[in-house]
Amino acid sequence: MSTRAIHKADAPDAIGHYLRDYDEARRTFDWTAARHALTGRTDPVLNIAAEVLDRPIAQGRGTQRAARFIDRHWNRIDLTYADLQRGARRFANVLRRLEVERGAVVATLLGRVPELFTVALGTLAAGNVLSALFSAFGPEPLKTRLQLGHVRVLVTTEALYRRKVAGIREFLPQLRHVLIVREAPPRELPPGTLDLAALLRMAAETFETVATGDADVALLHFTSGTTGKPKGVTLPHAAVIAQHATSRLVLDLHPGETYWCTADPGWVTGIAYGLIGPLACGASLIVDREEFEPERWYRILAEERVEVWYTAPTAIRMLMKAGTALARTRQFPALRHLASVGEPLNAEAVTWGVDAFGLPFHDTWWQTETGSIMIANFAACEVLPGSMGRAIPGIEARVVRHAADGTLEPIESADEVGEIALRPAWPSMFTSYLENPERYAAAFVDGWYLAGDLARRDANGYFWFIGRADDVIKSAGHLISPFELESALMTHPAVAQVAVIGLPDPIAGQAVKAFVELRSGVVATEDLRSQILGHARRLLGAAVAPREIAFSDALPRTRSGKIMRRLLRARELGLPEGDLSTLEGKE
Ligand code: ATP
Ligand code: MG
Prior knowledge:
The chain is of the alpha/beta class. Strands 2-1-11-10-12-13-14-15-16 form a nine-stranded mixed β-sheet. Strands 17, 18, 19, 21, 22 and 23 form a six-stranded antiparallel β-sheet that branches. Strands 4-3-5-6-7 form a five-stranded parallel β-sheet, with helices on both faces.
Protein backbone atom coordinates (compact mmCIF):
# COMPACT_ATOMS: atom_id res chain seq x y z
CA MET A 1 0.00 0.00 0.00
CA SER A 2 1.48 3.34 -0.97
CA THR A 3 1.50 5.79 1.89
CA ARG A 4 4.29 7.84 0.38
CA ALA A 5 3.67 11.54 0.90
CA ILE A 6 2.68 13.44 -2.21
CA HIS A 7 4.74 16.63 -2.11
CA LYS A 8 3.36 19.59 -3.94
CA ALA A 9 5.97 22.17 -3.09
CA ASP A 10 6.97 22.41 -6.75
CA ALA A 11 3.43 22.77 -8.02
CA PRO A 12 2.69 26.08 -9.70
CA ASP A 13 1.05 28.43 -7.22
CA ALA A 14 -0.49 30.92 -9.63
CA ILE A 15 -3.79 30.76 -7.80
CA GLY A 16 -2.38 31.87 -4.43
CA HIS A 17 -3.68 29.32 -1.96
CA TYR A 18 -5.68 30.62 1.00
CA LEU A 19 -3.69 28.40 3.34
CA ARG A 20 0.00 28.32 2.46
CA ASP A 21 1.69 27.57 5.76
CA TYR A 22 -0.29 25.31 8.08
CA ASP A 23 1.45 26.22 11.34
CA GLU A 24 1.27 29.90 10.59
CA ALA A 25 -2.44 29.62 9.74
CA ARG A 26 -3.13 27.83 13.02
CA ARG A 27 -1.27 30.47 14.97
CA THR A 28 -3.00 33.43 13.39
CA PHE A 29 -6.54 32.15 12.84
CA ASP A 30 -9.42 33.12 15.10
CA TRP A 31 -13.16 32.82 14.66
CA THR A 32 -13.93 36.47 15.41
CA ALA A 33 -11.66 37.47 12.55
CA ALA A 34 -13.22 34.76 10.34
CA ARG A 35 -16.67 36.18 11.09
CA HIS A 36 -15.44 39.64 10.17
CA ALA A 37 -13.76 38.37 6.98
CA LEU A 38 -17.16 37.04 5.95
CA THR A 39 -19.56 39.77 7.01
CA GLY A 40 -17.34 42.83 7.15
CA ARG A 41 -19.32 43.81 10.26
CA THR A 42 -19.17 43.40 14.01
CA ASP A 43 -22.88 43.76 14.89
CA PRO A 44 -24.69 40.65 16.17
CA VAL A 45 -26.89 40.23 13.08
CA LEU A 46 -26.16 37.21 10.93
CA ASN A 47 -28.27 35.56 8.26
CA ILE A 48 -26.92 32.93 5.86
CA ALA A 49 -28.97 34.30 2.95
CA ALA A 50 -27.51 37.77 3.45
CA GLU A 51 -23.97 36.35 3.38
CA VAL A 52 -24.43 34.24 0.27
CA LEU A 53 -26.61 36.64 -1.77
CA ASP A 54 -27.01 40.20 -0.44
CA ARG A 55 -23.34 40.74 0.40
CA PRO A 56 -21.80 39.26 -2.78
CA ILE A 57 -24.35 41.22 -4.85
CA ALA A 58 -23.53 44.45 -2.99
CA GLN A 59 -19.91 43.73 -3.91
CA GLY A 60 -20.80 43.60 -7.59
CA ARG A 61 -21.43 39.91 -8.14
CA GLY A 62 -25.08 40.28 -9.27
CA THR A 63 -24.54 39.46 -12.93
CA GLN A 64 -22.08 36.61 -12.28
CA ARG A 65 -23.35 33.08 -12.81
CA ALA A 66 -24.15 31.57 -9.42
CA ALA A 67 -25.26 28.15 -10.61
CA ARG A 68 -25.60 26.07 -13.77
CA PHE A 69 -28.10 23.19 -13.77
CA ILE A 70 -27.54 20.40 -16.29
CA ASP A 71 -30.33 17.98 -17.19
CA ARG A 72 -30.38 14.54 -18.79
CA HIS A 73 -30.40 15.97 -22.33
CA TRP A 74 -27.52 18.32 -21.54
CA ASN A 75 -29.82 21.36 -21.45
CA ARG A 76 -28.30 23.97 -19.19
CA ILE A 77 -30.09 26.53 -17.05
CA ASP A 78 -27.94 29.34 -15.65
CA LEU A 79 -28.87 31.56 -12.71
CA THR A 80 -26.94 34.66 -11.72
CA TYR A 81 -26.53 35.76 -8.11
CA ALA A 82 -29.22 38.40 -8.80
CA ASP A 83 -31.60 35.75 -10.25
CA LEU A 84 -31.15 33.65 -7.12
CA GLN A 85 -31.77 36.66 -4.90
CA ARG A 86 -34.94 37.65 -6.78
CA GLY A 87 -36.29 34.09 -6.54
CA ALA A 88 -35.36 33.85 -2.88
CA ARG A 89 -37.02 37.17 -2.05
CA ARG A 90 -40.21 36.22 -3.86
CA PHE A 91 -40.30 32.97 -1.91
CA ALA A 92 -39.70 34.79 1.38
CA ASN A 93 -42.73 36.97 0.53
CA VAL A 94 -44.77 33.84 -0.21
CA LEU A 95 -43.98 32.57 3.29
CA ARG A 96 -45.10 35.91 4.77
CA ARG A 97 -48.31 35.84 2.74
CA LEU A 98 -49.02 32.31 4.02
CA GLU A 99 -48.44 33.62 7.55
CA VAL A 100 -45.66 31.16 8.25
CA GLU A 101 -44.04 32.53 11.36
CA ARG A 102 -40.34 33.03 11.84
CA GLY A 103 -38.53 29.88 13.01
CA ALA A 104 -41.07 27.42 11.48
CA VAL A 105 -39.51 24.61 9.42
CA VAL A 106 -39.78 24.63 5.62
CA ALA A 107 -38.85 21.33 3.96
CA THR A 108 -38.06 20.58 0.34
CA LEU A 109 -38.58 17.27 -1.38
CA LEU A 110 -37.17 17.99 -4.81
CA GLY A 111 -34.58 16.82 -7.29
CA ARG A 112 -31.62 19.09 -7.92
CA VAL A 113 -33.67 21.80 -9.66
CA PRO A 114 -33.30 25.60 -9.60
CA GLU A 115 -36.42 25.95 -7.42
CA LEU A 116 -34.70 23.97 -4.65
CA PHE A 117 -32.00 26.62 -4.46
CA THR A 118 -34.31 29.65 -4.48
CA VAL A 119 -36.67 28.07 -1.96
CA ALA A 120 -33.74 27.15 0.31
CA LEU A 121 -32.32 30.66 0.30
CA GLY A 122 -35.74 32.34 0.56
CA THR A 123 -36.48 30.21 3.61
CA LEU A 124 -33.28 31.38 5.30
CA ALA A 125 -33.86 35.02 4.27
CA ALA A 126 -37.28 34.85 5.92
CA GLY A 127 -35.80 33.60 9.20
CA ASN A 128 -37.28 30.12 8.74
CA VAL A 129 -35.51 26.81 9.20
CA LEU A 130 -34.57 24.85 6.07
CA SER A 131 -34.77 21.08 5.92
CA ALA A 132 -33.82 19.70 2.49
CA LEU A 133 -35.04 16.11 2.27
CA PHE A 134 -33.60 13.56 -0.10
CA SER A 135 -36.08 13.11 -2.93
CA ALA A 136 -35.76 9.32 -3.13
CA PHE A 137 -37.15 8.77 0.38
CA GLY A 138 -40.33 6.69 0.49
CA PRO A 139 -43.46 7.58 2.50
CA GLU A 140 -42.34 6.02 5.79
CA PRO A 141 -38.98 7.77 6.14
CA LEU A 142 -40.66 10.97 5.00
CA LYS A 143 -43.38 10.66 7.60
CA THR A 144 -40.80 10.16 10.36
CA ARG A 145 -38.77 13.17 9.28
CA LEU A 146 -41.72 15.50 8.64
CA GLN A 147 -43.15 14.60 12.05
CA LEU A 148 -39.87 14.84 13.94
CA GLY A 149 -39.10 18.22 12.33
CA HIS A 150 -42.64 19.60 12.90
CA VAL A 151 -42.45 20.67 9.29
CA ARG A 152 -44.89 23.50 8.53
CA VAL A 153 -44.38 23.95 4.77
CA LEU A 154 -43.34 21.36 2.21
CA VAL A 155 -42.20 22.22 -1.32
CA THR A 156 -42.30 19.29 -3.72
CA THR A 157 -43.40 18.20 -7.19
CA GLU A 158 -46.79 16.89 -8.15
CA ALA A 159 -45.46 13.41 -8.90
CA LEU A 160 -43.57 13.15 -5.60
CA TYR A 161 -46.58 14.46 -3.71
CA ARG A 162 -48.97 11.94 -5.23
CA ARG A 163 -46.57 9.01 -4.79
CA LYS A 164 -45.21 9.74 -1.35
CA VAL A 165 -46.95 12.46 0.61
CA ALA A 166 -50.69 12.28 -0.17
CA GLY A 167 -51.03 8.95 1.64
CA ILE A 168 -49.35 10.16 4.84
CA ARG A 169 -50.82 13.68 4.95
CA GLU A 170 -53.41 12.71 7.56
CA PHE A 171 -50.57 11.89 9.97
CA LEU A 172 -49.04 15.33 9.56
CA PRO A 173 -51.42 17.78 11.27
CA GLN A 174 -48.67 20.38 11.68
CA LEU A 175 -47.98 20.44 7.90
CA ARG A 176 -49.96 23.55 7.00
CA HIS A 177 -48.98 24.13 3.35
CA VAL A 178 -47.81 21.99 0.46
CA LEU A 179 -46.45 24.00 -2.46
CA ILE A 180 -46.09 22.27 -5.80
CA VAL A 181 -43.30 22.84 -8.32
CA ARG A 182 -45.03 21.96 -11.61
CA GLU A 183 -43.07 19.92 -14.08
CA ALA A 184 -45.80 19.06 -16.60
CA PRO A 185 -48.24 21.45 -18.34
CA PRO A 186 -50.80 22.76 -15.83
CA ARG A 187 -53.61 20.44 -14.88
CA GLU A 188 -55.55 20.32 -11.67
CA LEU A 189 -53.34 20.16 -8.62
CA PRO A 190 -53.97 17.55 -5.92
CA PRO A 191 -56.40 18.79 -3.24
CA GLY A 192 -54.76 20.57 -0.33
CA THR A 193 -51.83 21.87 -2.36
CA LEU A 194 -50.89 25.23 -3.88
CA ASP A 195 -49.11 26.14 -7.09
CA LEU A 196 -45.69 27.55 -6.20
CA ALA A 197 -45.19 29.32 -9.53
CA ALA A 198 -48.52 31.16 -9.19
CA LEU A 199 -47.65 32.28 -5.67
CA LEU A 200 -44.23 33.45 -6.78
CA ARG A 201 -45.71 35.42 -9.67
CA MET A 202 -47.90 37.37 -7.24
CA ALA A 203 -45.07 37.99 -4.76
CA ALA A 204 -42.91 41.11 -4.70
CA GLU A 205 -39.20 41.03 -5.48
CA THR A 206 -38.31 43.26 -2.57
CA PHE A 207 -37.77 41.75 0.84
CA GLU A 208 -35.62 42.75 3.72
CA THR A 209 -33.61 39.73 4.89
CA VAL A 210 -34.62 38.95 8.47
CA ALA A 211 -32.07 40.05 11.05
CA THR A 212 -31.38 36.68 12.64
CA GLY A 213 -28.44 36.22 15.02
CA ASP A 214 -25.53 33.78 15.14
CA ALA A 215 -27.31 31.32 17.44
CA ASP A 216 -30.69 31.22 15.66
CA VAL A 217 -31.40 27.83 14.13
CA ALA A 218 -31.10 27.88 10.33
CA LEU A 219 -30.80 24.28 9.17
CA LEU A 220 -32.25 20.93 10.07
CA HIS A 221 -30.36 17.95 8.65
CA PHE A 222 -30.86 14.24 9.11
CA THR A 223 -27.75 12.08 9.49
CA SER A 224 -27.02 9.28 7.03
CA GLY A 225 -28.27 6.44 9.22
CA THR A 226 -25.06 4.45 8.75
CA THR A 227 -24.92 3.28 12.35
CA GLY A 228 -28.62 3.33 13.26
CA LYS A 229 -31.77 5.40 13.08
CA PRO A 230 -31.01 8.79 11.47
CA LYS A 231 -30.83 11.68 13.91
CA GLY A 232 -32.24 15.17 13.35
CA VAL A 233 -29.45 17.72 13.77
CA THR A 234 -29.93 21.50 13.97
CA LEU A 235 -27.29 24.03 12.89
CA PRO A 236 -27.31 27.78 13.58
CA HIS A 237 -26.90 30.70 11.16
CA ALA A 238 -23.32 31.04 12.44
CA ALA A 239 -22.56 27.84 10.50
CA VAL A 240 -21.97 30.07 7.48
CA ILE A 241 -18.85 31.47 9.18
CA ALA A 242 -17.21 28.04 9.34
CA GLN A 243 -18.58 26.87 5.98
CA HIS A 244 -17.15 29.99 4.34
CA ALA A 245 -13.81 29.77 6.15
CA THR A 246 -13.34 26.08 5.25
CA SER A 247 -14.49 26.57 1.65
CA ARG A 248 -11.49 28.89 1.44
CA LEU A 249 -8.96 27.14 3.69
CA VAL A 250 -9.74 23.56 2.62
CA LEU A 251 -11.49 23.64 -0.75
CA ASP A 252 -9.32 26.63 -1.66
CA LEU A 253 -12.28 28.09 -3.52
CA HIS A 254 -11.68 31.49 -5.10
CA PRO A 255 -14.27 34.02 -6.31
CA GLY A 256 -15.56 33.27 -9.79
CA GLU A 257 -14.24 29.71 -9.87
CA THR A 258 -16.29 26.87 -11.33
CA TYR A 259 -16.97 24.35 -8.61
CA TRP A 260 -18.80 21.04 -8.50
CA CYS A 261 -19.95 19.39 -5.27
CA THR A 262 -21.51 16.06 -6.17
CA ALA A 263 -23.46 15.63 -2.91
CA ASP A 264 -27.24 15.94 -3.00
CA PRO A 265 -28.70 18.83 -0.97
CA GLY A 266 -30.59 16.14 0.97
CA TRP A 267 -27.36 15.60 2.93
CA VAL A 268 -25.38 18.11 4.94
CA THR A 269 -22.53 18.24 2.40
CA GLY A 270 -24.92 19.26 -0.38
CA ILE A 271 -26.07 22.32 1.59
CA ALA A 272 -22.87 23.28 3.44
CA TYR A 273 -20.56 22.82 0.43
CA GLY A 274 -23.05 22.52 -2.44
CA LEU A 275 -24.72 25.84 -1.67
CA ILE A 276 -23.73 27.99 1.32
CA GLY A 277 -19.92 27.86 1.58
CA PRO A 278 -19.17 28.20 -2.14
CA LEU A 279 -21.69 31.01 -2.76
CA ALA A 280 -20.30 32.85 0.25
CA CYS A 281 -16.93 32.59 -1.57
CA GLY A 282 -18.40 33.99 -4.80
CA ALA A 283 -17.98 30.72 -6.72
CA SER A 284 -20.08 29.40 -9.60
CA LEU A 285 -21.80 26.08 -8.89
CA ILE A 286 -22.28 23.17 -11.26
CA VAL A 287 -25.39 21.15 -10.42
CA ASP A 288 -25.96 17.85 -12.18
CA ARG A 289 -29.63 16.86 -12.08
CA GLU A 290 -28.84 13.26 -13.01
CA GLU A 291 -27.40 10.35 -11.04
CA PHE A 292 -23.82 9.05 -11.07
CA GLU A 293 -22.59 7.74 -14.40
CA PRO A 294 -18.86 7.61 -15.13
CA GLU A 295 -18.93 8.91 -18.72
CA ARG A 296 -21.35 11.67 -17.81
CA TRP A 297 -19.20 12.78 -14.89
CA TYR A 298 -16.02 12.92 -16.97
CA ARG A 299 -17.87 14.93 -19.60
CA ILE A 300 -19.10 17.43 -16.99
CA LEU A 301 -15.63 17.84 -15.49
CA ALA A 302 -14.14 18.43 -18.93
CA GLU A 303 -16.82 20.46 -20.75
CA GLU A 304 -17.83 22.63 -17.83
CA ARG A 305 -14.18 23.29 -17.07
CA VAL A 306 -14.65 22.44 -13.40
CA GLU A 307 -11.78 23.90 -11.36
CA VAL A 308 -12.51 22.60 -7.87
CA TRP A 309 -14.29 19.28 -7.31
CA TYR A 310 -15.66 17.93 -4.02
CA THR A 311 -16.87 14.35 -4.18
CA ALA A 312 -17.05 11.11 -2.17
CA PRO A 313 -15.01 7.92 -1.84
CA THR A 314 -17.83 5.75 -3.12
CA ALA A 315 -17.96 7.74 -6.37
CA ILE A 316 -14.18 7.68 -6.68
CA ARG A 317 -14.12 3.91 -6.20
CA MET A 318 -16.83 3.49 -8.82
CA LEU A 319 -14.82 5.58 -11.26
CA MET A 320 -11.80 3.40 -10.48
CA LYS A 321 -13.96 0.34 -11.07
CA ALA A 322 -14.86 1.66 -14.52
CA GLY A 323 -11.14 1.86 -15.34
CA THR A 324 -8.57 4.61 -15.78
CA ALA A 325 -8.77 4.32 -19.58
CA LEU A 326 -12.20 5.97 -19.50
CA ALA A 327 -10.80 8.98 -17.65
CA ARG A 328 -8.08 9.25 -20.28
CA THR A 329 -10.66 9.77 -23.04
CA ARG A 330 -11.09 13.31 -21.71
CA GLN A 331 -8.81 16.14 -20.71
CA PHE A 332 -9.26 18.29 -17.65
CA PRO A 333 -7.04 21.34 -18.12
CA ALA A 334 -9.11 23.53 -15.79
CA LEU A 335 -9.21 21.08 -12.89
CA ARG A 336 -6.85 22.12 -10.10
CA HIS A 337 -8.11 20.81 -6.76
CA LEU A 338 -9.86 17.56 -5.77
CA ALA A 339 -11.36 16.79 -2.37
CA SER A 340 -13.40 13.99 -0.84
CA VAL A 341 -15.65 13.40 2.16
CA GLY A 342 -18.06 10.91 3.67
CA GLU A 343 -16.10 7.74 4.22
CA PRO A 344 -12.47 6.84 4.68
CA LEU A 345 -10.51 7.49 1.50
CA ASN A 346 -8.18 4.61 0.72
CA ALA A 347 -4.59 5.47 -0.20
CA GLU A 348 -5.26 3.66 -3.50
CA ALA A 349 -7.98 6.18 -4.34
CA VAL A 350 -5.78 9.17 -3.49
CA THR A 351 -3.03 8.05 -5.85
CA TRP A 352 -5.51 6.96 -8.51
CA GLY A 353 -6.46 10.65 -8.68
CA VAL A 354 -2.90 11.36 -9.78
CA ASP A 355 -3.16 8.69 -12.51
CA ALA A 356 -6.52 9.83 -13.81
CA PHE A 357 -6.40 13.62 -13.33
CA GLY A 358 -2.79 14.42 -12.50
CA LEU A 359 -3.98 15.52 -9.04
CA PRO A 360 -4.39 13.70 -5.72
CA PHE A 361 -7.69 13.65 -3.85
CA HIS A 362 -7.62 15.58 -0.58
CA ASP A 363 -9.49 13.75 2.15
CA THR A 364 -11.62 15.78 4.56
CA TRP A 365 -13.38 14.57 7.71
CA TRP A 366 -16.47 15.97 9.34
CA GLN A 367 -20.02 15.03 10.36
CA THR A 368 -23.53 16.42 10.17
CA GLU A 369 -23.05 17.37 13.82
CA THR A 370 -19.89 19.41 13.21
CA GLY A 371 -21.58 21.40 10.44
CA SER A 372 -18.32 22.03 8.59
CA ILE A 373 -14.98 20.39 7.77
CA MET A 374 -12.91 19.71 10.91
CA ILE A 375 -9.91 17.69 9.67
CA ALA A 376 -8.41 17.97 6.20
CA ASN A 377 -5.56 17.71 3.76
CA PHE A 378 -4.81 21.18 2.42
CA ALA A 379 -4.17 22.20 -1.17
CA ALA A 380 -0.74 23.69 -0.51
CA CYS A 381 0.47 20.97 1.90
CA GLU A 382 1.78 17.50 1.23
CA VAL A 383 -0.86 14.79 1.13
CA LEU A 384 -0.28 11.61 3.09
CA PRO A 385 -2.39 9.05 1.19
CA GLY A 386 -4.62 7.20 3.66
CA SER A 387 -4.58 10.02 6.21
CA MET A 388 -7.51 12.37 6.80
CA GLY A 389 -5.08 15.22 7.33
CA ARG A 390 -4.85 17.71 10.18
CA ALA A 391 -7.27 19.80 12.24
CA ILE A 392 -8.31 22.98 10.48
CA PRO A 393 -7.19 26.29 11.93
CA GLY A 394 -9.55 27.30 14.75
CA ILE A 395 -10.31 23.69 15.68
CA GLU A 396 -8.67 21.73 18.47
CA ALA A 397 -8.99 18.05 17.54
CA ARG A 398 -7.41 15.15 19.42
CA VAL A 399 -7.85 11.47 19.96
CA VAL A 400 -8.78 10.65 23.52
CA ARG A 401 -8.91 7.64 25.79
CA HIS A 402 -11.71 7.09 28.28
CA ALA A 403 -10.15 6.88 31.74
CA ALA A 404 -11.62 4.66 34.45
CA ASP A 405 -12.95 7.66 36.41
CA GLY A 406 -15.05 8.79 33.42
CA THR A 407 -12.72 11.62 32.38
CA LEU A 408 -11.02 11.87 29.00
CA GLU A 409 -7.29 11.93 28.43
CA PRO A 410 -5.84 13.22 25.18
CA ILE A 411 -3.48 10.57 23.79
CA GLU A 412 0.05 11.75 23.13
CA SER A 413 1.50 8.57 21.65
CA ALA A 414 1.29 8.32 17.87
CA ASP A 415 0.45 4.63 17.87
CA GLU A 416 -2.44 4.49 20.27
CA VAL A 417 -5.98 4.43 18.96
CA GLY A 418 -8.62 6.63 20.56
CA GLU A 419 -11.88 8.42 19.87
CA ILE A 420 -11.85 11.64 17.86
CA ALA A 421 -12.71 14.55 20.16
CA LEU A 422 -13.21 18.22 19.33
CA ARG A 423 -13.01 21.14 21.74
CA PRO A 424 -16.32 23.06 21.77
CA ALA A 425 -17.44 25.45 20.57
CA TRP A 426 -16.97 26.38 16.91
CA PRO A 427 -19.47 28.40 14.82
CA SER A 428 -21.11 25.48 12.98
CA MET A 429 -21.39 23.14 15.97
CA PHE A 430 -24.83 21.52 16.14
CA THR A 431 -27.26 22.98 18.65
CA SER A 432 -29.45 19.91 19.24
CA TYR A 433 -30.49 16.41 18.33
CA LEU A 434 -34.20 16.80 17.69
CA GLU A 435 -36.29 15.44 20.54
CA ASN A 436 -33.24 13.84 22.10
CA PRO A 437 -31.63 16.22 24.59
CA GLU A 438 -30.13 13.29 26.53
CA ARG A 439 -28.21 12.11 23.51
CA TYR A 440 -27.03 15.66 22.82
CA ALA A 441 -25.81 16.06 26.40
CA ALA A 442 -24.08 12.67 26.28
CA ALA A 443 -22.03 13.72 23.25
CA PHE A 444 -20.18 16.29 25.37
CA VAL A 445 -17.86 14.85 28.02
CA ASP A 446 -15.26 16.53 30.14
CA GLY A 447 -15.02 19.61 27.90
CA TRP A 448 -14.89 17.68 24.60
CA TYR A 449 -17.36 16.75 21.88
CA LEU A 450 -17.02 13.03 21.17
CA ALA A 451 -17.43 12.07 17.52
CA GLY A 452 -17.92 8.30 17.81
CA ASP A 453 -15.11 7.63 15.28
CA LEU A 454 -11.76 6.06 16.18
CA ALA A 455 -8.42 7.23 14.85
CA ARG A 456 -4.71 7.56 15.52
CA ARG A 457 -2.98 10.93 15.49
CA ASP A 458 0.67 10.93 14.50
CA ALA A 459 3.47 13.11 15.83
CA ASN A 460 2.84 15.69 13.10
CA GLY A 461 -0.84 15.98 13.93
CA TYR A 462 -2.10 13.88 10.97
CA PHE A 463 -5.17 11.76 11.74
CA TRP A 464 -5.42 8.16 10.50
CA PHE A 465 -8.95 6.79 10.49
CA ILE A 466 -9.50 3.42 12.15
CA GLY A 467 -13.26 2.96 11.95
CA ARG A 468 -16.50 3.95 13.55
CA ALA A 469 -16.59 2.89 17.17
CA ASP A 470 -19.41 0.44 16.24
CA ASP A 471 -17.46 -1.16 13.39
CA VAL A 472 -14.09 -1.77 15.03
CA ILE A 473 -13.15 -5.44 15.31
CA LYS A 474 -11.41 -7.09 18.24
CA SER A 475 -9.72 -10.36 17.38
CA ALA A 476 -7.33 -12.43 19.50
CA GLY A 477 -6.51 -9.40 21.61
CA HIS A 478 -5.84 -7.13 18.60
CA LEU A 479 -7.91 -4.11 17.78
CA ILE A 480 -8.44 -4.37 14.05
CA SER A 481 -9.15 -1.34 11.94
CA PRO A 482 -11.76 -2.09 9.28
CA PHE A 483 -10.32 0.76 7.22
CA GLU A 484 -6.76 -0.61 7.25
CA LEU A 485 -7.99 -4.04 6.30
CA GLU A 486 -10.20 -2.73 3.54
CA SER A 487 -7.42 -0.52 2.19
CA ALA A 488 -5.07 -3.51 2.06
CA LEU A 489 -7.63 -5.60 0.18
CA MET A 490 -8.24 -2.71 -2.22
CA THR A 491 -4.65 -2.98 -3.43
CA HIS A 492 -5.49 -6.29 -5.12
CA PRO A 493 -6.10 -5.43 -8.79
CA ALA A 494 -9.37 -7.39 -8.97
CA VAL A 495 -10.97 -5.62 -6.00
CA ALA A 496 -13.17 -2.57 -6.57
CA GLN A 497 -14.80 -2.12 -3.15
CA VAL A 498 -14.70 -4.02 0.08
CA ALA A 499 -16.29 -4.05 3.52
CA VAL A 500 -15.09 -6.08 6.48
CA ILE A 501 -16.99 -7.02 9.62
CA GLY A 502 -16.22 -8.97 12.79
CA LEU A 503 -18.24 -12.11 13.50
CA PRO A 504 -18.32 -13.91 16.85
CA ASP A 505 -15.64 -16.55 17.15
CA PRO A 506 -15.28 -18.87 20.16
CA ILE A 507 -11.50 -18.62 20.24
CA ALA A 508 -10.49 -15.25 18.82
CA GLY A 509 -13.49 -13.32 20.14
CA GLN A 510 -14.16 -12.00 16.67
CA ALA A 511 -13.10 -13.25 13.26
CA VAL A 512 -12.95 -11.08 10.18
CA LYS A 513 -15.18 -11.62 7.18
CA ALA A 514 -14.66 -9.55 4.03
CA PHE A 515 -17.28 -8.75 1.40
CA VAL A 516 -15.65 -7.96 -1.92
CA GLU A 517 -17.08 -6.25 -4.98
CA LEU A 518 -14.94 -7.01 -8.05
CA ARG A 519 -13.85 -4.62 -10.78
CA SER A 520 -15.87 -4.57 -14.01
CA GLY A 521 -15.21 -7.61 -16.17
CA VAL A 522 -13.53 -9.70 -13.44
CA VAL A 523 -15.09 -13.13 -12.90
CA ALA A 524 -15.57 -14.43 -9.34
CA THR A 525 -13.85 -17.83 -9.05
CA GLU A 526 -12.57 -19.99 -6.20
CA ASP A 527 -9.09 -19.41 -7.51
CA LEU A 528 -9.50 -15.65 -7.28
CA ARG A 529 -10.88 -15.99 -3.75
CA SER A 530 -7.74 -17.81 -2.60
CA GLN A 531 -5.54 -15.32 -4.43
CA ILE A 532 -7.16 -12.40 -2.60
CA LEU A 533 -6.91 -14.27 0.72
CA GLY A 534 -3.22 -14.94 0.05
CA HIS A 535 -2.69 -11.27 -0.85
CA ALA A 536 -4.35 -10.19 2.40
CA ARG A 537 -2.27 -12.62 4.49
CA ARG A 538 0.95 -11.39 2.90
CA LEU A 539 0.12 -7.76 3.59
CA LEU A 540 -1.56 -8.08 6.95
CA GLY A 541 -0.33 -11.29 8.54
CA ALA A 542 -2.48 -14.31 9.26
CA ALA A 543 -3.70 -12.97 12.63
CA VAL A 544 -5.38 -9.94 11.09
CA ALA A 545 -6.25 -11.09 7.55
CA PRO A 546 -9.87 -12.04 6.87
CA ARG A 547 -10.76 -15.62 7.61
CA GLU A 548 -13.42 -15.63 4.95
CA ILE A 549 -14.13 -13.72 1.75
CA ALA A 550 -17.54 -13.45 0.14
CA PHE A 551 -18.10 -11.94 -3.30
CA SER A 552 -20.88 -9.39 -3.48
CA ASP A 553 -22.45 -7.74 -6.55
CA ALA A 554 -23.30 -4.62 -4.63
CA LEU A 555 -22.45 -3.81 -1.03
CA PRO A 556 -25.33 -2.30 0.97
CA ARG A 557 -24.90 1.46 1.01
CA THR A 558 -26.73 4.46 2.36
CA ARG A 559 -28.19 6.85 -0.18
CA SER A 560 -25.33 9.19 0.68
CA GLY A 561 -22.92 6.45 -0.43
CA LYS A 562 -21.66 4.95 2.84
CA ILE A 563 -21.19 1.22 3.25
CA MET A 564 -23.59 -0.11 5.92
CA ARG A 565 -21.46 -2.63 7.80
CA ARG A 566 -24.14 -2.93 10.48
CA LEU A 567 -26.45 -4.41 7.85
CA LEU A 568 -23.85 -6.92 6.66
CA ARG A 569 -23.40 -7.94 10.31
CA ALA A 570 -27.12 -8.23 11.00
CA ARG A 571 -27.71 -10.32 7.87
CA GLU A 572 -24.78 -12.58 8.65
CA LEU A 573 -26.02 -13.18 12.20
CA GLY A 574 -29.72 -13.37 11.33
CA LEU A 575 -30.47 -10.34 13.52
CA PRO A 576 -33.11 -7.66 12.87
CA GLU A 577 -31.95 -5.32 10.10
CA GLY A 578 -32.82 -2.15 12.00
CA ASP A 579 -33.68 1.19 10.39
CA LEU A 580 -33.36 0.87 6.59
CA SER A 581 -34.82 4.24 5.68
CA THR A 582 -31.59 5.43 4.10
CA LEU A 583 -30.62 2.17 2.37
CA GLU A 584 -29.91 2.74 -1.30
CA GLY A 585 -32.42 1.18 -3.69
CA LYS A 586 -35.14 1.00 -1.06
CA GLU A 587 -38.30 3.06 -1.05
P1 ATP B 1 -25.39 8.12 11.46
O1 ATP B 1 -24.82 9.13 12.41
O2 ATP B 1 -26.86 8.27 11.27
O3 ATP B 1 -24.95 6.72 11.71
P2 ATP B 1 -23.42 9.05 9.59
O4 ATP B 1 -22.55 9.21 10.77
O5 ATP B 1 -22.88 8.28 8.43
O6 ATP B 1 -24.83 8.45 9.98
P3 ATP B 1 -23.01 11.68 8.55
O7 ATP B 1 -23.06 12.76 9.56
O8 ATP B 1 -23.51 11.96 7.19
O9 ATP B 1 -23.86 10.48 9.07
O10 ATP B 1 -21.54 11.15 8.37
C1 ATP B 1 -20.47 11.45 9.25
C2 ATP B 1 -19.60 10.24 9.41
O11 ATP B 1 -19.05 9.85 8.14
C3 ATP B 1 -18.39 10.45 10.28
O12 ATP B 1 -18.69 10.33 11.65
C4 ATP B 1 -17.46 9.34 9.80
O13 ATP B 1 -17.76 8.10 10.39
C5 ATP B 1 -17.77 9.29 8.32
N1 ATP B 1 -16.77 10.10 7.59
C6 ATP B 1 -16.94 11.31 7.05
N2 ATP B 1 -15.80 11.73 6.44
C7 ATP B 1 -14.89 10.77 6.63
C8 ATP B 1 -13.51 10.62 6.27
N3 ATP B 1 -12.87 11.53 5.57
N4 ATP B 1 -12.89 9.48 6.68
C9 ATP B 1 -13.54 8.55 7.40
N5 ATP B 1 -14.82 8.64 7.76
C10 ATP B 1 -15.50 9.73 7.38
MG1 MG C 1 -22.92 9.87 12.69
